[in-house]
Amino acid sequence: MTEDGGGADLIPGLDDVPRVPAGKARQAKGPAGKSGGKAPKKGARRPAEERPVARVAVDMSLPHLDRPFDYLVPVELDGKAVPGCRVRVRFAGQLVDGFLLERVEESGHDGKLLYLERVTSPEAVLTPEVASLAREVADRYAGTFADVLRLAVPPRHARVEAEPIKEPAEDEPGEAPADAGDPWLEYPAGASFLNALAEGRAPRAVWTALPGPEWAAAIARAVAVTLRAGRGALVVVADGRDVARVDAALSAELGEGRHVALTAELGPAERYRRWLAVLRGKARAVVGTRAAMFAPVADLGLVVLWDDGDDVHAEPHAPYPHPREVLALRAHRAKAAALIGGFTRTTDATVLVETGWAHALAADRARVRRAMPRVRYVGEDAQLARDAAARTARLPNLAFEAARRALEEGPVLVQVPRRGYVPGIACGRCRTPAHCVTCQGPLALPSSHAAPYCRWCGRIAGDWHCPECGFFQVRAIVVGAKRTAEELGRAFPGVPVRTSGREAILERVGPERALVVSTPGAEPPADGGYTAGLLLDGWVLLGRPDLRAGEETLRRWMNAAALVRAEAPVVVAAEGALPAVQSLVRWDPVTYAERELAERREAGFPPAARMASLTATPAAIRELLADARLPDGAEVLGPVPVPRQPGAEGPEKERALVRVPRAAGPALARALKEAQGVRSARKATETVRVQIDPLELI
Q: What is the pLDDT of residue 169?
């Protein structure tokens, strides 16, 4: 974890910080910087007798200071200053937080060492495994150690730390019978995977799950087998609703009190309480959202990531690590098993299979056909319903009839790509998109009787007229979930219509007849499964200007269709010749992912190549690229202007992309981090935002 800082005096920008780099030289000197001479004055601080030098990771995000610093441990803090504890130190004349990484006998610094000011808490919250992982993640994403630690270790809650420690139950979970209820028996390699876990080995699999709700029970069974083998398990899912499903499955499989669930909704105190239970070894299994990827599970034996293509997994804070990469690193370092699963397969997971890092785990085609719904497709403008009510609801006749028959047996799921009422409008005559005259933001309709408003600045545009033809009436470009629910209510009178979206997400629906209109990702499961599914406005998802548009569309469609009963109808409103639609009809996401990866390899796009996104003013980007010693074969694309966000102030920003072969990814991250350090040492006023392998490239 430590780095040699012997050349710190040659680094610009260190004139105002203590010269206490970590290193290896002679015995650390006393507080006055002299090895002999007069006895210390009365009341003067004295260093500890054993291992008096503490190497501290200071909470500073400056790239050129991204290394440990040496401090003296005073004798009065000798018992509290343990590796992994939180400390306060004086740095550049200010008191700052830090983590004590280790204590050693000697320091490589020739001058005077400062003392630790105090130990904030003697609790060793930073384990050696997480510390070394954080260092590797920081280097992988061209970030700093301090930024990763902010993601890995939650803020301290003193009252929770002082609570008495509850001892866990001593009895172990019983043996799970391998009967017909075992979800892994549905997969030819499922039993082999569980046997490897039971024997303490480290199998790695990319799992294409069968449609249905059994995925949570399958994860719980794998966790139980790992715990019976004497090792810990970590499960990362996309959102709180998935956490609740896996939490319930783990409780049923393991019993109460043998695992913890970590989500942001818990609040700081309860979250820290559960995190401490994991740290102290009172819980050996964890399920949570992306923040749980650094959970300090002891003797980690299994990492699980569900639905790795969900963009909710993307970390919005620097250095923007993805759980797929972090968990893969943890599995490699801890010699643990890895399970990356979902109803679909991402191109990133396909790379893991192609390189041999993981093996494919899927059911055979006969079992898939028995479990999948029956998918049919219709064009957007063709096959419009002859029935007047169906035409009003913009449903093709095939979708209308499927919903009408299915409602006799239970609920029907309707997926709409956009939330709101009418989120996009255009001129009723020439179809020119309607924009705000103040900020040029898109106009939308909040309800059937409201005036258009700007989605950026909120201005009411009641007097809008088309700048091209002067027409003052508007039409819908795309219809949102609320408008769809209103139309379906007219088309199916007497049928309850429920909506699920960002404003209010339904947790679950009953088996009674109802129309459930949902945006992607907010679909609630139904008791017994939906009797039919309608996937509307497919062109909105497929037409997005995004490299991952097809892959993401298929993921959203299959996640929704997986909630429908086996062999029940699913109608998708999209052109049948499109590869994503054909993959949905055949329920074959693996072939689609392999084809998509091959096309990206030809075009030089991730994950076949590695890319870095640089966002800042043009001058800052030019300066960073001039300082960066990019690896051979690096290609700089752009820069191009970045669209200004509503209400944003300051200078215009641009974005440049740096592309390298996949094998040169570590060299690219290292070059950009060194260049960031040079700019930081020069005290550059502007920070360049560096993202390695960003999700959005277009």
A: 52
* Residue bearing tokens 């009436």: 473
The H-assigned helical ranges of 508-548 are 538-542
Three-class SS of residue 124?
coil
- 21-46: pLDDT as tens digits: 444 333 344 443 434 445 566 667 89
Residue 454 in tokens: 């700007």
Token representation of residue 490: 């007219």
Q: What is the pLDDT of residue 2?
A: 38
Token pair recorded at residue 296: 């300090």
| Distance between first and last Cα of the chain | 37
| Rounded distance between C-alpha atoms, residue 79 and residue 242, angstroms | 43
* Length of the chain as a residue count: 698
DSSP string of 430-483?
T-PBPB-TTT-PBEEBSSTTSPPEETTT--B-TT---TTT----EEEEE--HHH
Give the whole-angstrom CA distance, residue 515 versus residue 500.
11
Question: Which whole-number Å values give the CA distances from 153 to 149, 271, 291, 568, in the listed order?
Answer: 6, 11, 9, 46
Beta strands in 622-663 (DSSP E): 635-641, 654-661
Q: What is the DSSP string of 602-631?
A: HHT-TTTEEEEEEEE-HHHHHHHHHH--PP
515: its two tokens: 């129309």
- The three-class DSSP label of residue 78 is coil
Rounded to the nearest angstrom, the gap between the alpha carbon of residue 505 and the centroid of all alpha carbons in its chain is 20
Do the bridges between strand 532-535 and strand 515-518 make them parallel or antiparallel, or are there none, so unpaired?
Answer: unpaired
Coil, helix or strand at residue 463: coil
Phi, psi for residue 318 in degrees, rounded to 5? -60, 140
Paired tokens of 164? 């008495």
Query: What is the per-residue burial (b if ≥16 Cβ within 10 Å, else e) of 268-295?
Result: eeebbbbbbbbbeebbbbbbbbbbbbbb
Task: State both tokens at 451.
Answer: 């005036």
Radius of gyration (C-alpha) of the chain in whole angstroms: 29
Quick check: 547 and 657 in contact, CB under 8 A?
no
Alpha carbons 455 and 647: distance in angstroms, whole number? 12
**Beta pairing partners, 661:** 609
Rounding to the nearest 10 degrees, give the CA dihedral for residues 238, 240, 244, 246. Answer: 20
The answer to whether the Cα torsion of 631, 635, 641, 646 is positive or negative is negative
In DSSP terms, 535 is beta-bridged to 415, 572
Rounded distance, CA 241 to CA 227, Å? 24
Show the tokens assigned to 300: 């980690």
Contact 443, 425 (CB under 8 A): yes
Q: How far is CA 180 from CA 176, 183, 184, 481, in A?
A: 12, 8, 9, 40
Q: What is the pLDDT of residue 471?
A: 80
Q: pTM of this prediction?
A: 0.85
The span from the CA of 294 to the CA of 292, in Å, is 5
Mean of per-residue pLDDT scores for the chain: 85
Distance CA 649, CA 15 (A): 33
- Site of tokens 């293509």: 309
Q: For the chain, which residues score pLDDT lower than 70?
A: 1-43, 166-181, 379-395, 418-425, 428-429, 431, 439-441, 445-450, 455-457, 474-486, 644-649, 698
Contact 377, 572 (CB under 8 A): yes
**What is the identity of the amino acid at 600?**
R
Q: Give the list of residues 6+ apart from residue 648 with CB closer than 8 angstroms, or none.
A: none
Tens-digit pLDDT profile for residues 572-593 = 988 888 999 999 999 999 999 9
d(Cα 298, Cα 278) in Å, to the nearest integer? 8
